[in-house]
Amino acid sequence: MKAFDLELAIKTWKRSLLNAKLDEGTRQELENHLRDSIEDLITQGYSEEAAFTKAVNRLGTPKGIGQENIKARARGNTLMGSMVIQTFLIQWRLLKRRSIYALINVMGLVLGFACCLLITLFIRDELSYDSFHSKSDRIFRVATDANLSGTDRSWALVPSLMMPPLYEDLPEVEGYTMLAPANQSQHTIKYKDQLFDESGSLSGKVIQVDTSFFNVFDFEFIVGDRKTAIAPDMVVITASRAMKLFGRTDVLGEMIEVMNVGKLGISGVIKDPPRNSHLQFGYLLHSDFKASGFVPFIWVRAYLVLNTPESALKVGENLKPILDKATAETMNAVEMWPFLQELKEVHLTSHLEYEIGSNGDRKNIVTFGLIAIVILLIAAINFTNLATAKSAIRAREVGVRKVLGARKRQLISQFLSESITMSVIALVLSFGLVLIALPVFNQLTGKVFLSSELLDTSLLIASLSLALSVGIVAGIYPAFFMSSFRPIVVLKGKLTLGRGKGAFRKVLVVLQFSISVIMIFSTLVVLQQTNFMKNQGLGFEKDQIIILPIDRAWTREAQLLKQEVLVINGVVSASLSSHIPSMRGGVMVMQPEGFSDKETQMLDGIYADFDFIKTYGLDIAIGRDFNSELITDSLNFIVNETAIDKFGWEMSEASIGKKIKYPNGPVSGTEGTVIGISRDAHFRSLHHAISPMMFGISNSKFPFLGTNYLSLRVKSEDVTRLMETIEQIWNSLSLDKAYSYSFLNQQFNTQYQSEEKLSELFIYFSFLAIFIACLGLFALAAFTTEQKTKEIGIRKTLGATVSQLSGKITWGFTRWVVVANVIAWPVAAIVMNQWLQGFAYRMSIGFSIFAFSTIISMLIALTTVSYMSVKAARANPIKALRYE
Amino acid sequence: MLSKGLIAASSKSLILGILQGGRTYGYAIIKGVRELSGGELEWQEGMLYPVLHRLEKEGLITSEWEVTEGSRPRKYYAITEAGKAAIHSEQENWMSVHRVLTKLWNDPSLADI
What we know:
Low-confidence stretches of chain A: 72-80
Strand order of the largest sheet of chain B: 1-3-2
Largest sheet of chain A: 14 strands, mixed
Strand content of chain B: 5-15%
Structural class of chain B: alpha+beta
Structural class of chain A: alpha+beta
Largest sheet of chain B: 3 strands, antiparallel
Mean pLDDT of chain A: 83
Radius of gyration of chain A: 38 Å
Helix content of chain B: 55-70%
Distance between the termini of chain B: 28 Å
Radius of gyration of chain B: 17 Å
Shape of chain B: globular
Mean pLDDT of chain B: 80
Helix content of chain A: 40-55%
Number of strands of chain A: 25
Number of helices of chain A: 26
Oligomer: heterodimer
Largest interface: A-B, 26 and 23 residues
């Protein structure tokens, strides 16, 4: 046998201390103690080995010391640490024991938090628009209110004439820039025989800008000099366009051709505009916005840089005099009031005519913010409800703890920290859920959120404090409620829960379901309104119509194309026109018969060939359609009913033959005769009231509005083949434009995109809200039936049938859903009526919506509860009674 | 042998009492208690240190490491003014327990309660 080595033994013992939670100092202290003890024992006559064994025994096991140490520390300042561990352990045990409730609790919260996070991402993005420019708080857009023959209009446009004097006269204006989107026919790009159609894509938009564009805006250059990049015969393109055309970005000096503009050299490649820029484009061309030919001035979007944000007020006051002076010679008939808009506010608050892109809406932000709060509220209610319901089970725990000396304050903080822990766990899980849901959400919102955006510090801090406050708010009532149990009562098992205190839970359930009903109701209204708008008779034929965008410059080729296409079997009718339904016509300022010299009327004008009315199936109420055999018709007009009304004319034969005069412009003084009155038709979406319209014949004498579209009315089983045939014809004519076409009904329906997006989001979120509410209801039902096992058992032995019993239990819950419906109706009706005010043509909220939302909510509630109640009612009564 | 609970309950008074007699280190405290009690009070010796640390946190005692040549470094504990004050209240507590128990055991008429 080996001799006993004291040092080795002590070393081994020391190592075992490492497992115990001891700090270095304490370990040293304990070792000293052991050595002292051993030395003493040896002097008393013990052998080294015996002394060691005895000393170690006296000292106690390392693990024991470690635990004792934790307890001692827990009594001191580090109370929090051990509390968290303890709470977590309790939570974990409870989770295992009553896993279904815990699961439902956490799941509801996870969903709630996930919704909140997503909505927060959305709102943050919407609020961040255009703030990336270093001068963003000093940049203002100039827009105008105008009163045109009695109609108030607001435009995102100003006459280019007023900008130079604005800069020269006002010292507060440090700089300005003007821009205007190129027209449809300038959206085909040619590079080495290859044509790229950029019409209709936001990131391929062609915009004309002046040389100071990059002095005002901070778009980032990849190659090129920002000071000189904008110049005649030059073009600046974005990185994504460079990749599309060349497959690389170092393309300085390469030549591309922008159709109907000319060959241009690339003077710069910039990064694509950030997603949160209201200006989106792919190509920047130079323009000096000088008036020429027909037009006395050009309407532009104009942006000012002021010396300080505060000087906006002063500059704003000076806009009108400067505009009036600048346009005194050219625009006598129109009164205009220019005003300033903060750049950062443009995206959310500006909904003027001629916005450069489609803007967001502050209303949506408020709506989604509310939805986030509501969903969180429902989840928090679940939490509170289940916690108070569970209290019966935990009553004994509370009793025991109280007997052992726990004070009320300690219990409250225990329960509170439990609910906070739950809430924080739910938050962590919700981040995972958001990661999973992000692609779908991106698709729904049309935005591109990256998962890395979730790790933003401010977002993390905000969500953590949200989780903490939800934990506190949801936990505070149960905490006070449970901690007030009297130990003697609960320990004797006399506490009757679910009776008196149940009232609070019922109020919460009713609240949850009222919210759910409002969500269902709103969803139905949004859906129905969207449908209403899509299916409303428009007053013209929108199905079976195919639109080919053509080039305003090739009138002769356009005629040729039309003739050749008309020969194809399946093409019923074709028309060349300046505009098509789904867009505004050109703005025409006219002087109808009976108006004084100064008076004019604004109309939306469409100039087309003789077949337009026929192709679109517009209804002529009085008078006749254009006739190509009557030469004089090329000067004549057809107007709609609204126009007649605005003119103050009679809706009768008496108005046929009256004259309308062009009061200014190159054909000033020329008159045309009204030959027909068309029935009002919805040329634009039903958001808008019908505007006064005039149709004229496009010819070389009146090329104002150009010829931009060829509309085909088709009647064919095989549209794809038809379109292929047309493509062949298109190619055989070797036109300088890529072949593309669209269906009018699709194009028309894009006007309802925002409603569709809204209703889709609404459906998702209300589904979630209802789902979370149902989770709560389910758990509550499960719990209540469990509580009533005995009652059900007795009733059953006394002869109650399964259906009677389950009916009774189910009714116990569903009647609260009925109450919820009654509460929700007026609220929902008021809110949704408000929303409908935003539409010029709207459905009325009928009985069916009330009925449907009630039925849906009842069905959902019934399904949720009936499973538990049937299960309880079917259970064997002997089991139930023996169990007690 | 005393029960664990009683030892734990009395440890504060004992430690403070011994430290009132002068600063000393852990092993010496154990030894002191053993000698004073004639071996009746046997602590699980390791448990002393957590108690010492707790008392230090409560501000009743202070500690410092002392290194003297040729000997192990030792952590010496000393009582603070607050500790001295605490001894008084500890004394009163124990005395009142003592009085009640004495009464109880010496007066047969009270024993039936």
